């Protein structure tokens, strides 16, 4: 519960089970192995800005990265967060954010992404903020420590934007969360109507 803050107890209740975070989902040893596996796919240098789908700066990304043993293992361990008939795609979206990079508020495209998003954060802590599309006063913040897992589903995925706060705004309540380089492995399922 200390990893989650909400604009009101009502909102926390409304999103219970739909937006969640679990610290210590991967050990430091697994994290090192995962980084070793995904790093080659990210290429060298060449961080970019802006993306057609979401406001994002200071990042590199790739969609292939589960060749190795730790990646496959992680996929198996996040699969229970997905509906049995809508499992995660067999590849992870690997997002490498510079300390000065951020992900602006957006909703993942319903064309390319199904009902559930699960993200594992490595290296640097960060704050993931959700904000209601209906009422911007309604927000939820998740403290993403290295090795943590977060899951967004249902209303938290469709009715709220999500963003990774830039360093200068990176606070969790009174707690300053200094941003370093952060690598996230993000698992998604297909939208309904595809590969039924
Ligand atoms: C995204 C996104 C969040 C994260 O790439 O669409 O929301 O955990 N990323 O990096
Ligand atoms: Mn997203």
TrEMBL record:
- Entries under InterPro entries matching the protein: AlkB-like, AlkB-like_sf, ALKBH7-like, Oxoglu/Fe-dep_dioxygenase_dom
GO MF terms listed in the record are: dioxygenase activity
Q: Which GO annotations describe the biological process of this protein? A: DNA damage response; fatty acid metabolic process
Alphabetized, the UniProt keywords read: Dioxygenase, Oxidoreductase
A cellular component term from Gene Ontology for this protein is: mitochondrial matrix
Cofactor(s) the record lists:
Fe(2+)
| Start and end residues of each Fe2OG dioxygenase domain | 77-191
Xref: PANTHER family: ALPHA-KETOGLUTARATE-DEPENDENT DIOXYGENASE ALKB HOMOLOG 7, MITOCHONDRIAL, SPERMATOGENESIS ASSOCIATED 11-RELATED
Q: What's the protein called, per UniProt?
A: ALKB7 dioxygenase
Native source organism of the sequence: Helopsaltes ochotensis
């Amino acid at each position: 519960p200390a990893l989650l803050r909400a604009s009101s107890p009502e909102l926390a209740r409304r999103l219970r089970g739909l937006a969640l975070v679990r610290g210590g989902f991967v050990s430091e040893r697994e994290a090192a192995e995962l980084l070793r596996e995904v790093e080659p796919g990210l290429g060298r240098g060449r961080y970019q800005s802006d993306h057609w789908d979401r406001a994002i700066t200071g990042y590199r990304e790739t969609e292939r990265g589960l060749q190795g043993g730790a990646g496959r293992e992680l996929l198996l361990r996040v699969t229970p967060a997905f509906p049995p008939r809508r499992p995660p795609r067999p590849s992870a979206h690997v997002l490498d954010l510079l300390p000065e990079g951020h992900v602006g508020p957006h909703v993942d495209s319903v064309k390319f992404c199904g009902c559930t998003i699960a993200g594992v954060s490595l290296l640097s802590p960060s704050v993931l903020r959700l904000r209601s599309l209906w009422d911007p006063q309604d927000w939820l913040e998740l403290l993403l420590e290295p090795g943590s897992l977060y899951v967004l589903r249902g209303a938290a995925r469709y009715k709220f934007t999500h963003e990774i706060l830039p360093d200068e705004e990176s606070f969790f309540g009174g707690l300053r969360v200094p941003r370093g380089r952060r690598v996230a492995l993000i698992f998604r399922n297909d939208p309904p109507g595809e590969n039924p």
